[in-house]
Write a structure and sequence with these properties.
Layout: H1 2-6, E1 15-16, E2 19-20, E3 22-23, H2 34-46, H3 57-77, E4 85-88, H4 91-101, E5 111-115, H5 124-133, E6 136-140, H6 150-157, E7 162-168, H7 180-189, E8 193-197, H8 209-212, E9 216-220, E10 231-235, H9 237-241, E11 253-257, E12 260-263, H10 277-293, H11 295-314, E13 319-321, E14 331-336, H12 341-349, E15 353-354, E16 356-358, H13 363-369, E17 374-378, H14 385-402
Parallel strand pairs: 3-15, 5-6, 5-7, 7-8, 8-9
Antiparallel strand pairs: 1-2, 4-10, 9-10, 11-12, 13-14, 14-17, 16-17
Helix pairs in contact: 2-10, 3-10, 11-14
């Protein structure tokens, strides 16, 4: 299966510095299968027009294709209603949208809670809300393994002043898969709503918003084998419908004059201006690709890779894997004695192996772990055991050079 999947990704046949391209940075952005590239190209060549506004055939066809993807996404995440799917430019835009709109409705004395695992995208917008409106921020701690400390999490909620919990479903640093359903249950028990960052998890795991019983969720297309420039904010319809607009402009109004405006219903209230039409079409093709392979098949393959990588990396002399969570997705951050992560990444690149190095947009988590930076290898459906073997060999070579 894996070889046939890999043949669908043209870039994987490339070479780097004369060596086979080993791409282990899918947590940053996944590669794109041919079906996604073709879907975008076909739309450009044969069916491109602005949507919602035109009364001519091409515009109507493009509008239908664009809105069909909204329904496809709704089925993919098991939304209650397709109108709950809001197109954004990425997860970061989704968090900023919610921080601005939901944040404007937070009552005096209420707080927002995040966790120590969060990406800057799910931290900075809440800090900006704090600075703008005085809304306080609480941080749920993690334990020594990299899991959210549920006892401490519940204790913070039990104070009764948390309006919203905004938490990752899978850490982009430690690979920690958080118990989203339990986090939501506890949040609701104490009167809070829960926003789930599914940017990392949705490509590896089925994310069913009804089964998890969450209130809002965000993910980005480019990590889901789709194009950049497209993301999704999902929320329960009634919760979204009570929020004010985020940006003003075309297509988000019912009526406007020089003295005032009335606004469109959800989702269009939050989709001002010409939307990312081609990117939406590409995301739809990416979802088709994932569903054609089967999310159960993808999960089984990637869990096998996690097991292989856990054993192999633990045998590399001088290397330390960060975190040991109860459940880990296909992300490993590590440090090597005597080697800066940036040096490791450069030496691996010379062997055709692409890994990430740095703080991974999670500086507070780096501080919590007591490191300045890490190297990170992350997997996808196209990752093979042989590529993990190449990583191990590359690390051994780098260690020998830096010793």
């Amino acid at each position: 299966m894996i070889e046939s999947v890999r043949r669908e990704f043209p870039i994987l046949s490339e070479t780097v510095r004369g060596k086979p391209f080993v791409f282990l940075d899918s947590a940053a952005s996944a590669q794109k299968p041919e079906c996604v590239l073709q879907a975008i190209a076909q739309s450009v060549h044969h069916c491109y027009a602005n949507i919602h506004r035109g009364l001519y055939a091409m515009s109507e066809k493009a509008t239908e294709a664009y809105e069909d993807v909204r329904h496809k996404i709704a089925r993919f995440i098991n939304a209650y209603d397709a109108r709950e799917v809001i197109y954004t430019s990425n997860s970061t835009a989704a968090f900023n949208l919610l921080a601005y709109t939901f944040g404007s409705r937070v009552k005096p004395g209420q707080k927002i809670m995040i966790s120590e695992l969060e990406h800057h995208a799910n931290l900075v917008p809440w800090l900006m809300l704090r600075d703008r409106c005085g809304v306080e921020l609480e941080v749920a701690p993690i334990d020594e393994h990299g899991d959210i400390d549920l006892e401490a999490y519940e204790a913070l909620l039990a104070r009764g002043d948390i309006a919203l919990v905004a938490v990752t479903h899978m850490s982009n640093v430690l690979g920690t898969v958080t118990p989203a359903k339990e986090l939501a249950r506890l949040a609701h028990q104490y009167g809070a709503r829960l926003l789930l960052d599914a940017s990392q998890s949705i490509v590896h795991y089925p994310v069913d918003v009804q089964e998890l019983d969450i209130d809002y969720m965000a993910f980005t297309g480019h990590k889901l084998y789709g194009p950049t420039g497209i993301g999704v904010l999902w929320g329960r319809y009634d919760y979204l419908n009570e929020l004010p607009p985020f940006m003003g402009g075309g297509d988000m109004i019912k009526s406007v004059s020089f003295t005032g405006a009335s606004y469109a219903d959800v989702p269009h209230r939050f989709e001002a201006g010409t939307p990312p039409i081609l990117e939406v079409i590409g995301l739809g093709a990416a979802i088709d690709f994932v569903e054609r392979i089967g999310r159960d098949v993808i999960l089984k393959h990637e869990q096998h890779l996690v097991d292989v990588a856990s054993r192999s990396l633990s045998e590399v002399k001088g290397l330390r894997i960060l975190g040991n969570p109860r459940e880990r997705g296909g992300v490993f951050s590590f440090v090597m004695e005597g080697a800066h992560p940036h040096d490791l990444a450069v030496l691996l690149d010379q062997q055709g192996i692409a890994v990430r190095a740095g703080q991974h947009c999670a500086e507070p988590l780096m501080d919590r772990l007591g490191v300045k930076a890490t190297a990170r290898a992350s997997f996808a459906v196209y990752t093979t055991e042989e590529e993990i073997g190449a990583l191990i060999k590359g690390l051994e070579t780098a260690r020998a050079l830096l010793a």
